[in-house]
Amino acid sequence: MLKTLRWKFILYAAITVFAILLLLPTLTSQLPPWFMKIIPADKIHLGLDLQGGMYLLLTVEGEKAVESYVEQIKNNLRDELKERGIPVGKLETEKPDRIVLEFSGAKEKVDNLLSQRFMMLRELSPSSEGGIWKVRLVLDSKETEYVKKRAIDQALEIIRNRIDQFGVSEPEITLQGTDQILVQLPGIRDPQRAINLIGQTALLEFKLLDEEGNIDEALKGNIPPGDMILYQRSVDPQTGAVRKNPFLLKEKTLMTGEFIKDARVSLDSQFHESYVSMEFTDVGAKLFEQITGANVKKRLAIILDNNVYSAPEIRERIAGGRAQITGRFTTEEANDLAVVLRSGALPAPVKILEQRTVGPSLGQDSIHKGIVSTLISAALIVLFMIVYYKFSGVIADVALMLNIVLTLATLAIFRATLTLPGIAGLVLSVGMAVDANILIHERIKEELRFGKTVRAAIDQGYHRAFSAIIDSNLTTLISGIILYQFGTGPVKGFAVTLSIGILANIFTAVYITRVIFDFVSLRPGVKTLSI
């Protein structure tokens, strides 16, 4: 019995020491290099309500992703019909997920093309009049859901990449529900810049200018077929006035930003202005060389999110896979543009559903109040247990302190975020830890009143209290899991600390205190228990 007890004591002591070591990176940054190599250096992260920062709840506009996908299908379908020599009278999108197709000729050829290359489209109400077929094609519902889900997954990854390159320490970017993205940026100093960086679609396109068309006539509404009007937006650095310069462009996009391999900020030595230097992938480099070679002496517009940044003249074939975006950028603007180009374009626009900013002073006040409330509650409980249960109360207090250490150590090793509601969950778990000890102590006192020996009273006391402790803690744990699964950020913070605290409570109240009581009761000559 003593040998088993000794091994339990060594095991529990090792767990306690390890928990304290896990907490050290949270408590201090002055740790030797060898410590980081042996002990995990993860620490508890403070939530926005404790250290300040920005909270954003975003949603991805999945319908826009579907619309872009259908537009791409429409263009591919036009090319395929042209290759097969099928005359097309009308081919346009009627709704975000629907295409209207009018053609003349054998319908069997079109049916074969749709079944072989465009399985994602379903045919609706085909009709024929005078040899002209009119068909409505709708995107399959499963394909629609897949496109929306893919857009959310891509947006989550792209936003995470942008934030990482933005330089925010310890950000939290997670999927919430099925179509929402939660972004928490602790300690951020420029919220608006972060919003602009996150929300920018960053669709980069290269289009040719229609230099033969009349821009004045186009501005009056007489836009030539196959053309479009976009503007170059420029801000006067002296007055801040915004000026828009119109361009008449060919609708056809020659190249997009999907071929960008890298984007970096450079400085023009002559004009001392920042610009963005782009490097294309191997495929992109060949495509860019073909485009520039076929359009020498023409102007190529560089467009980002429908804003013309520059429209330089192509003087010669450009090999090497490099290009530049100029536009009188500040260094900060050029850096942000390089970030979004490197991370890629969002598959669909994102919309801000909720935005909150917490100041660091408010966070410090929350930390102070949270620590004070935890210490006061712990001190009152410790004092009560000592006064009411005497030496046995001291044992319960040891388990209580260890319960707090284990809870915080678990938060550290899982890199959890501690919030103000999380502190409330910690305080509640402390109260529940004492409740378990009270149940055990009262059962032991009952057994002693029945005249049993100290050893027998301890055995029966733990046996009778065990089921009640497990039942009460298990039901609370289930509630915590449900709160975490379906709750929002603050509720999840409460649920995490509460659930971890309950598991630590079962370990400390049932097993740690039992080892201490066994050591006391097995000493020779022990006939009474201070309880």
Keywords:
four-stranded antiparallel β-sheet, Gyrase A, domain 2, elongated, 3 domains, Multidrug efflux transporter AcrB transmembrane fold, Alpha-Beta Plaits, single chain, alpha+beta, 54% helix, 531 residues, 23% strand
Structural summary, described in words:
The protein is an alpha+beta fold and 531 residues long. The chain has three domains: 2-52 and 360-521, Multidrug efflux transporter AcrB transmembrane fold, CATH 1.20.1640.10; 63-143, Alpha-Beta Plaits (2-Layer Sandwich); 205-330, Gyrase A, domain 2, CATH 3.30.1360. The chain is 54% helix and 23% strand. It has 14 helices and 19 strands. It has helices at residues 2-27, 33-38, 48-51, 62-83, 107-117, 141-166, 191-199, 215-219, 282-294, 331-343, 360-413, 420-449, 454-486, 489-521, and strands at residues 45-46, 53-60, 88-95, 98-104, 121-129, 132-139, 172-176, 180-186, 204-208, 227-235, 242-250, 255-256, 260-267, 274-280, 300-304, 307-310, 322-329, 350-358, 417-418. The strands form six sheets. A four-stranded antiparallel sheet has the order 7-8-2-18. A four-stranded antiparallel sheet has the order 3-4-6-5. Strands 12-9-15-16 form a four-stranded antiparallel sheet, with helices on one face. A hairpin with a 2-residue loop joins strand 3 and strand 4. Helix 13 (454-486) runs antiparallel to helix 14. It is elongated, with a radius of gyration of 34 Å. The mean pLDDT is 84.
